[in-house]
Amino acid sequence: MEDFRHSAKTRHIRLLEGVAFAADDEDAYHCFIKRPPYQPVGRPLPCFFVLGEAGGRLPQDLHARLMNMGAQEKSPVIVLPSNGLDAPIAYDGPLLRQEAVLHIIAPLDNAASRSRGLLESGMLAERRVLIAGLGSFGSSAAVELAKAGVGKFALVDMDRLEPGNIMRHQCGVADIGRFKTHAVRDAILARNPGAEVATHELDLNTKLDLMLEEARDSDIVICLTDQGRSRFNCNTIALAAGRPALYARAITRAAGGDIFRFRPGGPCLSCLFAQGAALGEDEIASIRSASERTPDYAPPGADMALVQPGLACDIAPLVQMLVKLALVELAPRGIGHWERLREDLAAPFYIWANSRDDIYRDWKPMDYQFNRNSIMRWYGVRVPRDEHCMSCSLA
Ligand SMILES: [Zn+2]
User: Cβ distance 235 to 249 under 8 Å?
Assistant: First the structure.
C-alpha cells in the first residue's frame, strides 16, 4: 500500500479533478471531488478510492464494498491496482470506465512544504488551540491556523450555520443547517487532514468547568464571540489555566476592530476595560446576539435591524493579525522570522482603523499621508496591569 501511494504521487489527474487525502482504513482512500455537471450547488460528491483489480467494469465485490462504504450509483470510483504498477482506473459511477491519472497527496507531507523554513511545522503540529466562537472571525482564524500547520483544535460554538452567515463565513451553502463546529472541523481537515479536532456544541457560559479543562489542554485560548459575557468568561478561564489568550472583535459596521492579547502575568481583559478602553460598540454579527440585546418592548423584527455585518474583506485584516499574534505565541523560540515578529508585536492591545465611519468619522482621508492618524492601519497600544483588577489580582 505504501509503495503504491508513493509511486502514484507524481501523476496528475486529468479526467477527474480531485485528490486523495487520507487512508480511512487499510485499503480505501476517501476524498471529496467537485463535479459541477452533477452537483452545481451543494455538497461535493465523495469520490472513493479502492485498492483492487481493475477491469472493464468495476468488479462486483468492490461494488458491493463501496455501497457499504456509502457510495452512490453515480459516485466516482478510482481503483488503485493492487500491483502498484498499473495506472489507476476511474469509474464514473461503478460501471463506466475511464482512464485516470492521479495526483495523490500524502497527508501533511506535501501540504506543509511551503511553510518550511518559516515554521517548524512539526512543532506546530503538536500545538493545540481552543477557539470559542465560530462566526466569520472564528471560522477564518481556524482555517488560517490549520494552513499554518497547527495540528490540534478544540472548537466551541452552540449555533448552526444559517443562510445569513455564509457571505462572511469560511463554510458555504453546503453546510447550512450544520453545527458550525462540525462545518469548521471539516474546513480544517480539508487543509490539514492530519489535524485532531474536538468539538463542543454548547454555550460556553454554561460549561465553564469543561472550558477550563479544554484551556488547560491547549496552548492558547482564542475568544471570538460577539458577546461581552463570554469574553469575560474566557478571561477568567485563561487566567485560571495560565494560558495566553486572544480576543478579537469588529466594532459597529466594521468601522474598525481591536485585538487584545493576554499573557500570564500581564494585563488581562478586565484590566483593559477597567481603563476605559472600550472603543466603539461591539459589532452585532448574529440574530441571536442581537435578540439578546433587544429590549422586551421593542417591536418584532427590531433584532434584525441591530445586526451590523461588515463585509468579509473588512473582517479579513483583523483575522490576519489575530493569526499572526497566535503564531507568535505558538511558534518555537529562536526562529528569526518569528523572533522579529515577536518584537514587532510587543503591544498587548491593537486597534485597527478600517473606514472613516463611527468613531473614525472625523479622521482625515488616508490619501497620500503617512504622518498622521489614518484608516487602514494598526495601532499598538500599551496597557498597564491594573493593580486592583477584580480578575487578575485575585487569580
Ligand atoms: Zn486584570
Answer: no
